[in-house]
Amino acid sequence: MKYSEPGGSIHITAEANEMFIRLDIADTGFGISQEELPQIFRRFYRGKNVRDAEGVGIGLFLAREIITAQGGHMKAASVPGQGTVFSIFLPLF
């Protein structure tokens, strides 16, 4: 919600198959440019359009580190002005 306009929303879906669970977290926020998407999981990275917002740029880095430590992975897809979808894949052990 931090990077969405007032009245924005977040939609979470989960899907399981025989190998992993996929969680998709979609927002209606500002979105992330295609040029910045490869950078967003770097420690202390702050996007150009959110530099004035509160934060230090460690949240996505830590989330990916934790998910990776559990044998999973995380990716993002975004359209500027329409929002972002973060997909988390966790193995079924």
Quaternary status: single chain
The first-to-last residue Cα distance is 32 Å
Count of helical segments? 1
What string, H for helix and E for strand, traces the elements in order?
Answer: EEHEE
Strand content: 25-35%
What's the total count of β strands? 4
Structural class based on helices, strands and sheet pairing? mainly beta
Biggest β-sheet: count, sense, barrel?
A: 4 strands, antiparallel
Which sequence of strands runs across the widest sheet? 1-2-4-3
> Nearest-angstrom radius of gyration?
14 Å
Could you say which overall geometry the principal axes of the C-alpha atoms support? globular
Helix content: 10-25%
Mean pLDDT: 89
Unreliable segments of 5+ consecutive residues? none
Keywords:
4 strands, 93 residues, 12% helix, 4-stranded antiparallel β-sheet, 33% strand, mainly beta
Question: Would you kindly provide a brief summary of this structure?
Answer:
The protein is mainly beta. Helix content is 12%, strand content 33%.
Describe it.
- With 93 residues, the protein is mostly beta strands.
- The protein is 12% helix and 33% strand.
- The chain is built from 1 helix and 4 strands.
- It has one helix at 59-69, and strands spanning 10-16, 20-27, 73-79, 83-91.
- Strands 1-2-4-3 form a 4-stranded antiparallel beta sheet, with helices on one face.
- The radius of gyration is 14 Å and the shape is globular.
- It starts with 9 loop residues before the first strand and ends with a strand.
